[in-house]
From TrEMBL:
GO terms for molecular function: metal ion binding. This is Hemerythrin. InterPro entries: Hemerythrin-like (IPR012312), Hemerythrin-like_sf (IPR035938), Hemerythrin_metal-bd (IPR012827). Keywords: Iron, Metal-binding. It comes from the Bacteria. Residues 16-123 form the Hemerythrin-like domain. Pfam families: Hemerythrin (PF01814). NCBIfam families: hemeryth_dom. The keyword Disulfide bond does not apply.
Length: 159
């Protein structure tokens, strides 16, 4: 059984975000299931997770930009840091055959994701609701001040 499975505890009541998060959890579970498989299979599963995560984080970063987050905010910084680690472990596995960091990344992502979703992504979903942001059109009901939010969007973030 995977370390992390989709549950109502991860749902944020924002359909596009929840669908994307469920896909992330499913792809992470597929990577975890491949930990003891042939290295090529593990690398393929992790690359699929990375490809998804690039689009997943890009989507959230675009939503943040559209709803008034500063370009340099802690939520986007966390996205960039996670993607850099994921790219680095793929590179080590691909070029040097060192799969230990990739295997560790699978375990760490399963631990990291729930907190990220329940704090930062929940804050973003709440903010999107408050400004009446429609992810399908990219339009907000309420006017937003570009770059006004420098924090993560979570109510626990002080900036």
């Amino acid at each position: 059984m995977p370390t992390l499975t989709w549950s109502d505890a991860l749902a944020l009541q924002q359909p596009q975000m929840d669908d994307t998060h469920q896909e992330f959890v499913d792809l992470l579970a597929a990577a975890e299931a491949a930990l003891d498989a042939e290295p090529a299979v593990l690398l393929q599963r992790f690359q699929e997770l990375l490809d998804h995560t690039i689009e997943h984080f890009g989507q959230e970063d675009r939503w943040m930009a559209a709803t008034g987050f500063a370009t340099e905010n802690c939520h986007s910084f966390q996205h960039a840091a996670v993607l850099q680690v994921m790219r680095n472990v793929v590179a080590l596995a691909s070029t040097e055959g060192d799969f230990a960091p990739l295997r560790q990344a699978v375990a760490e992502l399963a631990q990291w994701f729930p907190g990220h979703a329940q704090m930062m992504d929940a804050g973003l979903a709440f903010h999107m609701e408050q400004v009446g942001f429609d992810p399908a059109t990219g339009l907000c009901r309420e006017p937003v001040t570009e770059g006004a939010l420098t924090g993560c969007g979570s109510t626990s973030c002080s900036t």
